[in-house]
Amino acid sequence: MSIATTTDTDLLLDSLHDAYEYIPKRAIRYFIDPDHKAQAATLLLTEMEEVLADPSFFAEDMSQFLFHAMMILGHLHEEDAIPLFKKVGYLENHAVNEFLGSRLFDSVPHAFAELFKHRIDELKALIEDAGQNPMIRASQLQTLMVLYGSGQLQREDLVSYFLTLLQNRKEKTPHIYDLIAAAATVLHPKEMIDELRAAYDEGYINPEQIALSEIEEILDDPVEEFSDHAREAFHADLEDLLAHYEKIMGKKHFFERNDPCPCCSGLKYKKCCY
């Protein structure tokens, strides 16, 4: 038996629009229940199309639906969502900030990673698309680091790609080259250092985000020792992100019916967002 009736699904979708961080348990149970995955995916995809068709309207209402839909559809490995994930890249800054905010560089890359882990060339094409919002491009670049951290991309391939981006730099796009510089502290890429220095000199990388001297100091460490340390640190960060992801996906940290509602209304959970 379905957890929700047809009428209830509208309320469940509304709950995704309204929930900034915690998704009501009933909504999560419905959207990730394998017994009706196809129906749930169709609902999410249809609503996501509406949001992307009129982002200004939904941004004014501070809708959180897009973020939750991306996380759930990524969790479901829903390939029909890929065209919509690509459309996200063409949102204006205001919509990106309202829909995704600070989660753009921690949680969102995991959603991209779930759908593009076997489509690396497509992901790279998005990163290189100057028509996309630069913040989304940077999030997609961070997706490559997520895939590296999970062992699905090799260091040599990633360094080679980042080196190509540096060598072909044409636009002083915010975040893109800053993230490459930050990635250098994990990848330990001595083969990139000349291009990194040039990018700093030419103003492509913001030294206030990460100083060139910090990268040079890291590169002076023994490769093997640093690489082991960096990967351990990266996985520690990744575990923190996955814990956050599980909280978003409702795998744990559920609230009981009589707990105070997490929306801070002052009501019990069963009387408010349940």
Structural account:
This protein has helices at residues 6-18, 25-31, 37-53, 55-60, 65-75, 82-88, 93-99, 108-116, 120-127, 134-149, 155-167, 176-187, 193-201, 212-219, 223-249. It is mainly alpha-helical. It has 15 helices and no strands. Helices cover 62% and strands 0% of the residues. The longest helix is centred in the C-terminal third of the chain and has 27 residues, at 223-249. α5 packs parallel to α8 (108-116). It has a domain at 7-151 and 249-271.
| Residue share in β-strands | under 5%
> What is the straight-line distance between the termini?
20 Å
Q: Structural class, please?
A: mainly alpha
What is the strand tally? Answer: 0
The largest β sheet comes out as: none
What is the CA-atom radius of gyration, in angstroms?
Answer: 20 Å
What is the share of helical residues? Answer: 55-70%
Average pLDDT, rounded to a whole number, is: 83
- What is the count of helical runs? 15
What would the principal axes of the Cα set say about the shape?
elongated
Residue runs with pLDDT of under 50 for 5 or more positions: 1-6, 244-255, 261-265
Please state the oligomeric state of the protein chains shown. single chain
Write the H/E string, N to C: HHHHHHHHHHHHHHH
